[in-house]
Amino acid sequence: MSEPLVLTLSCADRPGITARVTSFLFERGGNILEAQQFNDRSSDAFFMRVEFDPGEASREMIRTEFAPIAAEHAMDWELALRDRPRRVLIMVSKFDHCLADLLYRWRIGELPIEPVAIISNHPRAAIEHTHLGGIPFHHLPVTSGEKSAQEAKVRAIAEESGAELVVLARYMQILSDEQAAHFSGRCINIHHSFLPSFKGARPYARAHERGVKLIGATAHFVTSDLDEGPIIEQDVERVDHRATEQDLVVMGRDIEARVLARAVRWTAEQKVFLNGARTVVFR
To answer: Disulfide: which of 24, 34, 194, 242 matches 198 by Cβ 3.0-4.6 Å?
Structure first.
């Protein structure tokens, strides 16, 4: 039995693209299992994701024969196995709730990922409550004047491990412009949604002092603009005057973990498309 494939594409919008793609697959014996598309009128861009059973056609044949259509429409496209886990490099500091949540969801089969390495700027003892199993752990401290060398080691580990996606699971270090550019479009960050109001240390304490009524988190692609990359997912919960600072911290951790997990899952499933400063997410 053939393995289902996923075709993803984006290009300038024009009439007939959907018909061209679906006809192409039909003519080669493909059976469409799920299809989603979006026409962005503001940017005149078209996005499409198609899951299909290729039947007797091989992935190589489909890729070769679809290439002329993609070139005609100047498509940014990819053809991949639907169920292949994406190789993921996870970076973390002292707060390991997001890391632990990702690993748990991976182990129970909820996330279509394969963690290939974990990097931390703190010793492994800082995340002693998280079971890493056999996942390679790398302690890469960030010392004064050595940040460039540390980031070069990160890039080398990503290259050697074949990482397709980098996840900053509460990695509390600012990436240089060079590092952000190197991982452009394949690096996801998570942070609380108080920004830009409460930057820096102890954001929940300052949020409590101000009496905030919403706790939230944002997962986004990393760019050189700190915490301002294209947003993938967000969530919030309402709080009131009874909530203590610790209540806010506990709620925040829970929201951060689930928002990051959704962003990682959708990205691994090739449901997230960059659209300038925004994203298109086929849920």
So the answer is: 194
Instruction: Name the residue among 103, 6, 113 with its Cα closest to residue 53.
Output: 6
First to last CA, the chain: 27
Question: In 10 A of CB 174, how many CB atoms?
Answer: 11
232-250: pLDDT as tens digits: 999 999 999 998 989 988 9
Q: What is the pLDDT of residues 134-181, one digit of tens each?
A: 999 999 999 888 999 999 999 999 999 999 999 999 999 999 999 999
Q: What is the per-residue pLDDT across 212-232, written as a single tens digit (0 to 9) for each?
A: 888 899 999 999 887 889 999
- DSSP letter assigned to residue 162: T
CA gap 202, 100 in Å, rounded: 22
How far is 257 from 101, CA to CA, in rounded Å? Answer: 6
User: How many Å apart are CA 204 and CA 187, to the nearest integer?
Assistant: 25
More confident residue, 274 or 204: 274
Q: Are 233 and 73 in contact (CB under 8 A)?
A: no
Provide the whole-model pTM: 0.94
Question: Do 232 and 168 contact (CB within 8 A), yes or no?
Answer: no
Query: What does the block give as tokens for 118?
Result: 């974990």
Which is the catalytic residue, given 40, 227, 247, 254? 227
C-alpha separations of 91 from 108, 143, 151 in Å: 21, 17, 12
227 is catalytic: yes
> Among the residues of 56-165, which ranges form H helices?
59-72, 97-107, 147-161
pLDDT at 158: 98
Q: Is the previous residue joined to 196 through a cis bond, with omega within 30 degrees of 0?
A: yes
Q: Is 178 helix (H, G, I), strand (E, B) or coil?
A: helix
